[in-house]
Amino acid sequence: MRAPGGSWDNVGGGRRARSGRPCALLWGASPADGFALGTATDSASPGAREDIGEDGARARYRRTGCLADLRGPDGSSWKLTTTASVYEGARAARQAYRAREDLDRAHGRGPEKVHADAYAIPADDRGRPGRTLLLRNGDLVLTVSAYAPYGSTARDVRRGLEQIVEGAAHRTERGLRASGSPAP
Question: Strand 118-125 relative to strand 128-137: parallel, antiparallel, unpaired?
Fold first, then answer.
């Protein structure tokens, strides 16, 4: 799930991912076979924010995201969320990623490694089984979560959840790195 080559902005020695309308990155192709994207809402932060880092250091970042409804192959209602945090540099992104991984591990959510800089954890949204994928690539930390219909069992929807989060993560990451997207 590494991003292909693309255009980058150099900010403070780090590479900054581009973004515009995050939900637009998901249009055009299904995040998984048989699923269709429904209504979607962009969430974007126009200004830089601060994240408390190690030893009181504060890393600057921008955050953007998308909340979308999906229709399953049988017409069932699924939910998809993406959140991208773009840091001033790769080191700050790595610290944020490691802190989140340590927190998930401490809370017993047992991260399942996808590769060196990506892991997945089970999720739940008020009775909807889900899956969250967290990945880091350079200065980008991307979180993608998908939730199955109410009444589903995690075992029955696991494959669909895996396909949705991986497909959405790939499309979002690739889109954020594309040269045609305006910077946040």
Answer: antiparallel
Q: What is the pLDDT of residues 8-21, one digit of tens each?
A: 232 223 333 444 57
Q: Which two tokens stand for residue 96?
A: 């944020």
φ/ψ of 56, rounded to 5, equals 75, 0
- Rounded Cα distance between 86 and 141, Å, is 7
Please list, residue by residue across 150-174, b when 16 or more beta carbons sit within 10 angstroms of its beta carbon and e when fewer do.
eebeeeebeebbbbbbbbbbbbbbe
Q: Using CB atoms within 10 A of its CB, is residue 1 exposed (0-12), middle (13-18) or buried (19+)?
A: middle
User: Model's pTM, two decimal places?
Assistant: 0.82
CA distance 16 to 169: 17
pLDDT digits (tens, 9 = 90+) for 36-89: 999 999 987 666 666 656 666 677 788 889 999 999 999 999 999 999 998 888
Give the integer Cα–Cα distance in Å for 65 and 168. Answer: 12
